[in-house]
């Protein structure tokens, strides 16, 4: 049985429905990341789990217990806010101990717990300071300390790293991951940074306009997106999505990609024979930049790699790789080539398409075809 | 701040600066003159005042008028001086200010952090209390005080001032707390703190500036009130302002102007002290509200 269960959850503010029929379950010790564009309802969903917002319909269960009617302090959760929400007039030590103080924990025990947590997060030397005297990263640690000291069943994080600069964000990301491995507590984490989502999560839930698009492991979300939105949202640079036409052929269906000036590019849909069922139809052909390479850089473990001649439009060396842009189906398509691949603008060269990783969508419904 | 002042000072010409200073000094003198007249004449013997030069410094310095005003002047029918009424005012002002400030803070807290259906309507109605002229409420208020059995007592006056001040104190605190991050309240809720603990431990410690503003505002208004005092107080509960009026208007025989001046300064003293002590915070509090709210 799963540890955190969200069943048929709806949330309305007056007439506006901001969460529509959300169903998620998470195993004990799991790390669930909620991602989605701004305003899609991530924070609202997190707040309903915390009990800071009531829900209109549905049920939330933590460790088998229905918590809908429970006050936030009774749900055995701890939350880290985007703004950290440190109490400005209290010292770091008082901030960390405030929850225990409210619950009437005796002073010696409180001090011991504060010492333990501050040791773990290496903030012992800051205990006497006020939040205004801390740097962003230190505040972030204190906020985590305040959550850790409760030793809750579930940690809730609402974009905890979004106020930090890029370098610190990467450091803290690693630290959160390490923390999770160490304490093993179940975590629900909100972010709109898809790299954060990929690196931290054991499960990712993608939201859009209050509707859950897909829940799955990072690999599932990345490799098997259920629709165009998920495919486009996860990954950077984003997946190439090219309008194409399927031509049945005898036994190998062909994928035809229109081109502006030149003749259309035809690729055999090797490994995707099921596409025969869609003979003559328009589809969206999705391929990630790393599955589209120079011929020598193609994945040798892949079963189906096909090559097609394309004209190089733009070359963007990025150190470890070189991104090469060509035009297919009226769109820019990015290929990720080895940094020492010899490429020049205007050149016609073979591009290797790893068809194991190709996905196809219905252009009208934007749902995955399979 | 300091840097920019220096900068502009350098740019403005010498003449301009002299002009600005002259103007500032002129207005400072203009505003200080009444206080000067009151102070100077309160330490002169009566004969000196009769000579007619109100601006002259005393030739003979005496504090007798102050002593008379404080403890032996004729106020109404009795020669008690202003002392008992000064005490009355203190006994009215302190609880009235305290209660209205605490209630205003609680109202502001509820109206911003524990929003309920109709909260804005209730706030609007409370705001209207700020605009009702005093005169309109006199008769119904007298009725209520009578019904409660506290007509003519200090408790009656305290109640009137609390009720009347609530609109303003609520307004002040509501606007201040509206800018207070709600996430802190949420965090405290998760930490298991209840309604009053959140108020006492999280909001109140950050409320210094607005408390100062509210206290000064309420103190000044309640201390300076005359209309409610004259309408609802009897001889035993009369506040300072009413007593001062009686002192000035009831003297039989010679009019002791020096005593009147001393009495007037005594009546103004507490508000003056409050301003001097906390005026800095007052301005700061208003600014904080202006920037955030
Ligand atoms: N109290 C409220 N009343 C009405 N609508 C609200 C309220 N709170 C949030 N919403 C709406 O609910 C939707 C979801 O908001 P939410 O804060 O959950 O978004 P989010 O996914 O966290 O976005 P972001 O990434 O910008 O933080 C938004 O469209 C927002 O306007
Ligand atoms: Mg949010």
Structure explained in plain terms:
The complex is a heterodimer of chains A (370) and B (293). With 370 residues, chain A is of the alpha+beta class. Chain A is built from 8 helices and 22 strands. Chain A has a 6-stranded mixed sheet, sandwiched between helices. In chain A, helix 2 (92-102) runs parallel beside helix 4. Chain A starts with a strand and ends with a strand. The relative contact order of chain A is 0.11. Chain B folds into 2 domains: 2-68, no CATH class; 82-292, MetI-like fold (Orthogonal Bundle). Chain B is 76% helix and 0% strand. Chain B has 14 helices and no strands. The A-B interface holds A 47, 50, 52, 71-73, 77-79, 81-83, 85, 87-90, 98-99, 102-103, 146 and B 181, 183-184, 186-194, 197, 201-202, 205-206. The complex binds adenosine-5'-triphosphate and magnesium ion (MG). Magnesium ion binds at residues 42-43 of chain A.
Based on DSSP secondary structure assignment, what is the total number of beta strands of chain A?
Answer: 22
Report the span from N to C terminus of chain B: 22 Å
Distance between the termini of chain A: 30 Å
Shape of chain A: elongated
Strand order of the largest sheet of chain A: 6-7-8-3-9-10
What proportion strand of chain A?
25-35%
Report the sheet with the most strands of chain A, covering strand number, pairing sense and barrel closure.
6 strands, mixed
Strand content of chain B: under 5%
| Topology of chain A as a string of helices (H) and strands (E) | EEEHEEEHHHEHEHEEHHEEEEEEEEEEEE
Would you tell me which CATH topology of the largest domain in chain B applies? Answer: MetI-like fold
Q: What is the gyration radius of chain B calculated from CA atoms?
A: 24 Å
Counting helices, strands and paired strands, the structural category of chain B is: mainly alpha
Bound compounds, each kind once, are: adenosine-5'-triphosphate, magnesium ion
- In round numbers, the mean pLDDT of chain A is 91
Helix-strand sequence of chain B: HHHHHHHHHHHHHH
CATH architecture level-2 label of the largest domain in chain B: Orthogonal Bundle
Low-confidence stretches of chain B: 1-5, 289-293
CATH homologous group name of the largest domain in chain B: MetI-like
Helix/strand-derived category of chain A reads alpha+beta
């Amino acid at each position: 049985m799963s540890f955190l269960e969200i069943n048929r959850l709806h949330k309305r503010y007056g007439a506006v429905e901001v969460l529509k029929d959300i169903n998620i379950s998470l195993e004990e010790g799991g790390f669930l990341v909620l991602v989605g564009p701004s305003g899609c309802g991530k924070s609202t969903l997190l707040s309903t789990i915390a009990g800071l917002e009531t829900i209109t319909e549905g049920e939330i269960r933590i460790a088998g217990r229905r918590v809908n009617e429970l006050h936030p302090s009774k749900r055995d959760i701890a939350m880290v806010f985007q703004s950290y929400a440190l109490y400005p007039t209290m010292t770091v030590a008082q901030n960390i101990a405030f929850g225990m103080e409210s619950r009437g924990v005796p002073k010696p025990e409180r001090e011991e717990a504060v010492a333990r947590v501050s040791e773990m997060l290496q903030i012992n030397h800051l205990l006497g300071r006020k939040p205004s005297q801390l740097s962003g990263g230190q505040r972030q640690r204190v906020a985590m300390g305040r959550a850790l000291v409760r030793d809750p069943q579930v940690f809730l994080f609402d974009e905890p790293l979004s106020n930090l600069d890029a370098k610190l964000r990467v450091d803290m990301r690693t630290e959160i991951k390490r923390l999770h491995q160490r304490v093993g507590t179940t975590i629900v984490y909100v972010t709109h940074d898809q790299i954060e989502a990929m690196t931290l999560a054991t499960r990712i839930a993608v939201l859009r306009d209050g509707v859950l698009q897909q829940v799955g492991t990072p690999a599932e979300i990345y490799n098997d997106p259920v629709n165009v939105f998920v495919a486009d949202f996860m990954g950077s640079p984003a997946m190439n999505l090219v309008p194409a036409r399927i031509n049945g052929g005898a036994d190998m269906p062909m994928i035809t990609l229109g081109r502006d000036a030149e003749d259309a590019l035809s690729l055999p849909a090797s490994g995707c024979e099921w596409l025969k069922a869609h003979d003559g139809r328009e589809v969206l052909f999705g391929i990630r930049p790393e599955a589209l390479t120079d011929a020598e850089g193609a994945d040798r473990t892949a079963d189906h790699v096909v090559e097609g001649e394309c004209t190089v439009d733009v070359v963007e060396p990025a150190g470890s790789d070189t991104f090469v842009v060509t035009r297919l189906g009226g769109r820019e398509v990015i290929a990720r080539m080895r940094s020492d691949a010899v490429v020049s603008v205007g050149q016609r060269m073979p591009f290797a398409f790893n068809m194991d990783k190709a996905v196809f969508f219905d252009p009208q419904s934007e749902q995955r075809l399979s | 701040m300091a840097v920019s002042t220096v900068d502009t000072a350098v740019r403005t010409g010498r003449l301009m600066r002299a002009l600005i200073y002259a103007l500032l000094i002129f207005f400072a003198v203009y505003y200080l003159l009444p206080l000067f007249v009151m102070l100077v004449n309160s330490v002169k013997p009566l004969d000196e005042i009769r000579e007619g030069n109100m601006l002259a410094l005393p030739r003979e310095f005496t504090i007798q008028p102050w002593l008379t005003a404080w403890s032996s002047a004729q106020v109404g029918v009795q020669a008690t001086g202003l002392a008992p009424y000064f005490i009355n005012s203190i006994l009215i002002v302190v609880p009235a200010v305290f209660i209205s400030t605490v209630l205003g803070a609680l109202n502001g807290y509820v109206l911003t952090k524990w929003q309920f259906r109709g909260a804005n309507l209730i706030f609007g109605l409370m705001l209207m209390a700020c605009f009702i002229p005093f005169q309109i409420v006199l008769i119904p208020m007298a009725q209520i005080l009578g019904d409660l059995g506290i007509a003519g007592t200090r408790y009656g006056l305290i109640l009137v001032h609390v009720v009347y001040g609530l609109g303003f104190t609520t307004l002040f605190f509501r606007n201040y707390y509206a800018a207070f991050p709600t996430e802190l309240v949420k965090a405290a809720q998760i930490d298991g703190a209840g309604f009053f603990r959140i108020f006492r431990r999280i909001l109140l410690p950050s409320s210094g500036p607005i408390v100062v503003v509210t206290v000064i505002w309420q103190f000044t208004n309640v201390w300076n009130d005359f209309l409610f005092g004259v309408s609802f107080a009897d001889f035993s509960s009369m506040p300072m302002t009413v007593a001062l009026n009686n002192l000035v208007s009831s003297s039989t025989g010679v009019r002791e102007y020096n005593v009147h001046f001393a009495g007037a300064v005594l009546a103004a003293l507490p508000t003056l002290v409050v301003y001097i002590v906390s005026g800095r915070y007052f301005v700061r509090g208003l600014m904080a509200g202006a920037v955030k709210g």
